[in-house]
């Protein structure tokens, strides 16, 4: 609820009823100012009785019969002494060039503000209302109406004389008239009528709802929303009437227009005035003194509400109680509400006060948000509407928000907002940094400081780093990693960190940070020493990034101890910078590390490091036996005698077997498999690989007195050795495990072989026959001879130039052609000839397919 204090229009203030404001967080829709300047002086001596609003000026009537023309600020521009009694109504045409005035003593005047023309008339009864035609200045007829006991229409005829017509009478005093376009609406004791000046027809009669209320105490309020919509407020009732065109087929004797009431509802208080606001209504209420709904202190204050009309009710959007001067002495008839069509301005007129209400703009919205300490919303609203706000500055609102967050103790949010609010203003940034230092919150603002193209003085960043170094090593390290080194004096920070390390020499965080500072300062050797000492994961990245391979030649063991895989990969990827010989030399005293290096080298390329293959045999045998046999298989440079010696010394049977077989001693290898491994499957597999009949004989001889071996042989040698040879040599009466199953398997394998052979034979015969038929068809085809063909022996044209002479030609299936006399006789088979060319190329002799004689 807003109270309007006694202030000037230029220095306005909005304030609300404390009892309601504490409970309500809803922003008001309107703001209020008291119309002051000349109005203040007028109302000190006189009292306002009526007022009319034009886009350019205001016209104020008083109880002492004076009319004042005012500018929008309330300054008096013109004064008219009309009467000695109350001015009842003032009317202006749309152009603002003529004003109509009526008073309680029956005087009616129409005055041209810029011309001398006018109208003066005295009646013997009070004239309550007057209304000029909206186009009075431009119309030739100069029409206007007055209302007392009758509704009179005045118009000037072609003789320049005024003609009077009675439009209505007999229903009591007329209290209100509103003229819009061709429609005149007026109210009397019975209700509201609308008259069409164009058709000269009265088109409706809207009856008064509450006839118990005195019309002079609770007058009717009329307001045109547009050319067809009339808003009627009377007592506690509001009706919205729409003038519509009647269907020509329904007219008969009825007016061409009719009125439809689209909304009708009751309100809580008595209506003193109405005005449209888009699709809503602004209503001025009089609160009756005996109302039980208001506190005693505020019982008679008028209210200005914004409501949303519904067909049978309304929804309250906002409600403000106005503290106007002498409101305790006023009645419902003492208040009026006028509005400006050009902009949303609403004037509340009371005898001793005039209050102006207008829609709140974006500046007012921001004011309210700031008052409610909704700084974030205020900042957002200012950023969105920065082109439209006039009284506020986005940065100042942002600073107020930061101050509010600091007062709340939300230092992190305050620091985060600095990025957005302070922007590129380095002076403000430095001020904020010093303020955060004063309150002991440098850590909060540190992560939001500018660090790009725009930056603060180095002393600011160094101050924050020193602060972290005193209390938070981890935070200090984070800033060093995140901040570019150009922000501060690197050497000064290095010296400070070194001083702290003297007191705590094993602090990993400080050592890591010092290494990063050395790296930025391009003292990579010192950084590398620290990283290796700490076994830091970034040591390899540092070496690669800054090409420090020359610095690590004597530190290979340290690198390998830290992370073998990464170290070896790095060394192998950069063999051109650190040779294999150099690495082997450095790792000579650490054979386990040397093995890891040489093993990966061998995996990458079997031929690199071939001179170390002999050494690798011992290394594999000592540290990685599972990879020894694959190494022996893949290496072509391995000394076999040394490898055999190492394997025999360590009794590596599988490796020894492989080496013996590779050296050609397969019988000894097979013997080791059977005697030491006693693995018949492996022995059979070995024999299969070698595919040597003598090995099979040795295997059978060794296995003949060992039933498990015989079973294994019976199950596996069927496709390599004739099983009968083994079966004949089995001693009679020897018990052999699973003999029956083994024999069945041999027979099944034999049957499978027979079936496969028969199937292959059928396929071969069918394919042979098909190909033979295809060849026969091909060779039976005729061969075309023409002048371009030549004899393969004499290279002359195969056909004679004179076809009438006899000639003889031989054409072979290989398509080689000869004159018969050029073809040498064959002595191999009488009567059979062969192509000499194909026979010479060993492509198989061709036989003559065609002998052509003529």
UniProtKB/TrEMBL annotation:
Residues 791-839 form the RING-type domain. It holds the Pfam family Beta-prop_Vps41. The keyword tRNA processing does not apply. InterPro entries: Beta-prop_Vps41, Clathrin_H-chain/VPS_repeat, TPR-like_helical_dom_sf, Vps41, Vps41/Vps8, WD40/YVTN_repeat-like_dom_sf, WD40_repeat_dom_sf, Znf_RING. One of its GO terms (biological process) is macroautophagy. It is found in: Cytoplasm, Cytosol; Early endosome membrane; Endosome membrane; Late endosome membrane. GO terms for cellular component: clathrin-coated vesicle; cytosol; early endosome membrane; Golgi apparatus; HOPS complex; late endosome membrane; lysosomal membrane. Plays a role in vesicle-mediated protein trafficking to lysosomal compartments including the endocytic membrane transport pathways. Belongs to the VPS41 family. This is Vacuolar protein sorting-associated protein 41 homolog. The lineage of its organism: Eukaryota, Metazoa, Chordata, Craniata, Vertebrata.
């Amino acid at each position: 609820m807003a109270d309007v204090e006694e202030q000037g229009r230029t220095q306005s203030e909005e304030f609300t009823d404390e009892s309601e404001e504490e409970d309500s967080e809803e922003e008001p829709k309107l703001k209020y100012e008291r119309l002051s300047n000349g109005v203040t002086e007028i109302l000190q001596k006189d009292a306002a009785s009526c007022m009319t609003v034009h886009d350019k000026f205001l016209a104020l009537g008083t109880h002492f019969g004076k009319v004042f023309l005012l500018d929008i600020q309330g300054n008096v521009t013109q004064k008219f002494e009309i009467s000695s009694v109350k001015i009842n109504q003032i009317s202006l045409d749309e152009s603002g060039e003529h004003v109509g005035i009526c008073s309680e003593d029956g005087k009616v005047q129409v005055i041209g503000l810029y011309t001398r023309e006018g109208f003066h008339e005295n009646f013997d009864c009070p004239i309550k209302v007057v209304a000029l035609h909206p186009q009075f200045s431009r119309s030739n007829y100069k029409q206007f109406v007055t209302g007392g006991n009758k509704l009179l229409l005045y118009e000037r005829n072609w003789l320049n004389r005024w003609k009077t017509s009675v439009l209505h009478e007999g229903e009591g005093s007329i209290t209100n008239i509103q003229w819009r376009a061709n429609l005149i609406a007026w109210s009397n004791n019975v209700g509201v009528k609308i008259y069409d000046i164009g058709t000269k027809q009265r088109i409706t009669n809207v009856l008064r709802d509450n006839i118990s209320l005195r019309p002079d105490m609770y007058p009717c309020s009329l307001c045109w929303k547009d050319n067809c919509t009339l808003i009627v407020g009377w007592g506690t009732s509001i009706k919205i009437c729409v003038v519509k065109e009647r269907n020509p087929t329904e007219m008969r004797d009825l007016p061409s227009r009719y009125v439809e009431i689209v909304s009708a509802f009751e309100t809580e208080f008595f209506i003193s005035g109405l005005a449209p606001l888009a699709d809503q209504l602004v209503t001025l209420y009089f609160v009756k003194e005996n109302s039980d709904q208001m506190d005693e202190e505020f019982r008679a204050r008028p209210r200005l509400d914004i409501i949303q009309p519904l067909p049978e009710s309304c929804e309250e959007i906002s409600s403000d109680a106005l503290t106007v001067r002498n409101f305790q002495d006023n009645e419902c008839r003492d208040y009026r509400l006028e509005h400006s069509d050009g902009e949303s301005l609403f004037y509340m007129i009371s005898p001793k006060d005039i209050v102006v209400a207008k829609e709140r703009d974006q500046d007012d919205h921001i004011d309210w948000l700031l008052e409610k300490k909704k700084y974030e919303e205020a900042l957002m609203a200012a950023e969105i509407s920065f082109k439209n706000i006039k009284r506020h500055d986005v940065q100042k609102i942002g600073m107020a928000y930061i101050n509010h967050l600091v007062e709340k103790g939300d230092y992190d949010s305050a620091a985060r907002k600095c990025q957005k609010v302070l922007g590129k203003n380095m002076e403000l940034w430095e001020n904020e940094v010093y303020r955060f230092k004063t309150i002991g919150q440098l850590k909060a603002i540190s992560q939001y400081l500018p660090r790009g193209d725009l930056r603060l003085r180095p002393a600011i960043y160094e101050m924050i780093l020193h602060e972290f170094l005193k209390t938070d090593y981890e935070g200090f390290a984070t800033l060093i990693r995140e901040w570019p080194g150009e922000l501060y004096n690197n050497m000064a920070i290095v010296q400070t960190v070194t001083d702290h390390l003297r007191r705590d020499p094993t602090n990993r965080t400080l050592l890591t940070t010092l290494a990063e500072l050395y790296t930025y300062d391009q003292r990579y050797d010192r950084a590398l020493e620290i990283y290796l000492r700490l076994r830091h994961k970034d040591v390899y990245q540092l070496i690669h990034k800054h090409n420090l391979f020359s610095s690590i030649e004597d530190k290979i063991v340290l690198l390998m101890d830290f992370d073998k895989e990464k170290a070896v990969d790095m060394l192998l990827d950069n063999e051109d910078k650190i040779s294999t010989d150099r690495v082997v030399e450095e790792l000579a005293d650490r054979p386990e590390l040397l093995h890891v290096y040489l093993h990966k080298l061998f995996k990458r390329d079997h031929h690199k490091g071939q001179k170390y293959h002999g050494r690798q045999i011992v290394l594999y045998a000592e540290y990685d036996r599972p990879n020894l046999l694959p190494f022996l298989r893949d290496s072509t440079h391995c000394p076999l005698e040394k490898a055999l010696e190492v394997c025999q010394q360590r009794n590596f049977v599988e490796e020894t077997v492989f080496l013996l077989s590779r050296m050609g001693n397969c019988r000894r290898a097979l013997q080791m498999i059977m005697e030491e491994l006693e693995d018949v499957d492996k022995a059979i597999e070995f024999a299969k690989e070698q595919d040597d009949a003598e090995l099979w004989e040795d295997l059978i001889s060794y296995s003949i007195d060992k039933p498990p071996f015989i079973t294994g042989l019976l199950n596996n040698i069927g496709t390599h050795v004739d099983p009968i040879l083994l079966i004949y040599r089995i001693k009679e009466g020897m018990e052999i495990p699973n003999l029956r199953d083994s024999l069945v398997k041999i027979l099944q394998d034999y049957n499978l072989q027979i079936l496969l052979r028969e199937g292959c034979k059928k396929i071969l015969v069918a394919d042979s026959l098909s190909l033979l038929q295809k060849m026969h068809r091909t060779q039976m085809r005729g061969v075309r001879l023409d002048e371009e063909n030549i004899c393969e022996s004499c290279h002359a044209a195969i056909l004679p130039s004179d076809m009438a002479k006899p000639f003889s030609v031989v054409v072979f299936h290989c398509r080689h052609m000869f004159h018969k006399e050029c073809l040498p006789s064959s002595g191999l088979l009488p009567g059979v000839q062969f192509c000499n060319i194909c026979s010479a190329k060993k492509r198989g002799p061709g036989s003559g397919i065609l002998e052509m004689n003529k």
